[in-house]
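Morning F.,

Quick status update on the modeling queue. The single chain you submitted on Monday has been processed. Sequence for confirmation:
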Amino acid sequence: MEFSTSVIILSAGFGTRMKSKIPKVLHKICGKEMLACIIDEVSKISDDIHIILYNEAELIKQILNDKYPNNNFHFHLQNHQSYPGTAGALMKGYGENPKDLIDIKYHKTLILSGDMPLVESATLQDFINSDFDITLGILELENASGYGRVVLNDDKVIEIIEEKDASLEIQQIRFANGGIYCIKKDILSKYLPILESNNKQNEFYLTDIISLARNDNCDILGIKAKEEIFIGVNSKIDLARAENLMLDKIRLRAMKNGVTLRIPQSIYIECDVEFIGECEVESNSVLKGNTKIINSIIHSNTIIENSIIENSTIGPFARIRPKSTILDSHIGNFVEIKASNLNGVKAGHLSYIGDSEIDSGTNIGAGVITCNYDGVKKHKTIIGKNVFVGSDCQLIAPLTIGSNVLIAAGSSVSRNAKDGDLVISRAKQENKSGFYYKFFNSNTKEKK
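Structure tokens below.
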């Protein structure tokens, strides 16, 4: 695919309104960092991606490099002390010409903030397809509080005024700056060096380029878009709202692809969850991480994290923890499974299975626990085919149970069992005839 546009993502801010030690752009919606949501979309339309950093720059860089190994991102450290602001973010910041535009590849530049996790490549493509000198995203809002205001004349962009610098009259304008720009490279190269920070915040505003370009009769197009696409996240309230909008998109996409969702609005599904075949998810379930559901039913109030479920029924009230693979199995209520592979297994209720390999035809009774942790290390439990594990057993790892084995209820098993064994490990039962009457008669006399 041929590309024609460079992308600059502004991610240098402090995000103080988030009231968090986590950098704003690393806050997650539906399991994915906001900045990663944007990168995934802009990667569809450009191979020249520039990320502007300042606050917690090394942390953000490290997380992105871990998440996208062998990436070709260009990281830039903004000179925040000398050149703060959205326009300062585009400046080299150092050297003989510090206000010059950073080095970019293409003649067009798409600029957007790192706190806009709902942007989509299809919408961004509309900006790229524009032949105007500057193309600006515009929102028409009932209440534009928190946004820069856009002054229009016959749908032509005249000026953008940051809210902090807006008069009361300007604050009544309902057209807001959507925070996405597509600007020709020569426009940026011309105006960045002459920008000044003569405003209340003493910052270099990218929006001032609009006014300068307008004075030189440059063509400026405003593209109106829905708020849910351009929504910016500046607080935990915004974060929750953005996540709800993302969830709506994820759930709608799943249902369009044939997934049955019972009471959809109650189901939490993260971005990287994948459904294949005929799947059903009941209410109040949580599907997280790189979970894959294949031809399976997930009953209500079930949590599944980073696991594969195929041809199985899970729940209700089950928890499948990361690194589990469950095939052709039934996992019932109040069963917890962690880092285990189950193939053709029944675990109906009230069990914990951790760090285990369990083969087909095996039944796990109620109250069975794999004791996988000795206080220092985790150990594996391996169970063969057609094993019947009675209720209330403790399987003390490391442990290997062969195939066609019976394990008596209430047993604590700490030694391996070979094929065909009966395993029983519990204290011998002793019944004392008439003890009930002796006990209570004796205690009754003492009370008198």
